[in-house]
Amino acid sequence: TAKSELKDFLHISDFDKATILKMLDRAAEIKALLKSGDRSFQPFKGKTMAMIFAKPSMRTRVSFETGFFLLGGHAIYLGPNDIQMGKREETRDVARVLSRYNDIIMARVFAHQDILDLAKYATVPVVNGLTDYNHPCQIMADVLTIIEHIGRIEGTKVVYVGDGNNIVHSWLLMAAVIPFHFVCACPKGFEPDKKTVEKAQQAGISKIEITNDPKEAVKGADVVYSDVWASMGQKEEADSRRKIFRGFQVDENLMKIAGPKAYFMHCLPAERGVEVTDGVVEAPNSIVFPQAENRMHAQNAVMLHLLGV
Ligand code: CP
Ligand code: NVA
């Protein structure tokens, strides 16, 4: 299958640069339309989406549900206790049943294999709304936000500070498609998945650096990016991680080292006073709320692409 014609949206690097840029252009176009108050574009009219959530969510749930509705469709929220995929019912059965009622499925799960299984057995498109491995919709929204604020993603320096987690994996897979400079500064032992780092490096498109020195890393950054130190499913490690990650908090001093042009980004939810200070989140160069808003527009463009409308 050509990289522009895949059924599902599971990893950014499944798509080629032209397709990713096309989706981002479309996102900006539909954002402008929706923000103008125009509701005449209803490509999802008569369509339904099933949304499976094995984990909590605010942004993903509301942005998908609202976005699908604003473009004419109806979205169904299935929370952690509803279908209990893999527990009450096997993933391959969930996939085939939901495909018979719905035009598209969005899922947020723990194990990445669950989304791969869902996509394999679903006959309709499956969109990854976060797994333990990655979060592609988030990074699409992030790149849209960077393009809006800086004018481009190509050639910028994005420095992530914190845990080498799902967000980092999606940044690395974006860097395998679009050229920019990506740096991940994390404590020893919390580096991103080695295979994913190699994949991004071997693509030979972007400059990729993994380091344990946040102060050195942020110098000259266009974006300093932070995320929680304990992701969903790791909350029992929160206390021990607070000790290990000391020195990786994005505070006013680190932003000063980054330099005057650096924007602050965070996928949210943020724990102020932990991975980032309140002052950094509230500073004029923090773009965390435009970033959150863009989830909806980026995802609308992804769904339009998958549904071929
Ligand atoms: N950034 C993000 O995915 O937020 P939620 O967990 O609230 O969906
Ligand atoms: N790394 C975080 C992202 C939340 C949007 C988590 O997985 O909990």
From TrEMBL:
A single GO BP: citrulline biosynthetic process
One GO molecular function term of this record is: ornithine carbamoyltransferase activity
For the protein in the UniProt heading, the enzyme class is transferase
Recite the UniProt keywords alphabetically: Amino-acid biosynthesis, Arginine biosynthesis, Chloroplast, Plastid, Transferase, Transit peptide
Domain named Aspartate/ornithine carbamoyltransferase Asp/Orn-binding: which ranges? 154-305
E.C. no: 2.1.3.3
Reactions this protein catalyses: carbamoyl phosphate + L-ornithine = L-citrulline + phosphate + H(+)
Domain (Aspartate/ornithine carbamoyltransferase carbamoyl-P binding) spans 7-148
Q: Where in the cell is it found?
A: Plastid, Chloroplast
Query: Record's GO cellular component, any one?
Result: chloroplast
The keyword Membrane belongs to this UniProt entry's keyword annotation: no
Indicate yes or no for the key word Amino-acid biosynthesis.
yes
In the record, the note on similarity to other proteins reads:
Belongs to the aspartate/ornithine carbamoyltransferase superfamily. OTCase family.
**What is the name attached to this protein's record?**
ornithine carbamoyltransferase
Boundaries of the shown chain within the full protein: 73 to 381 of 381
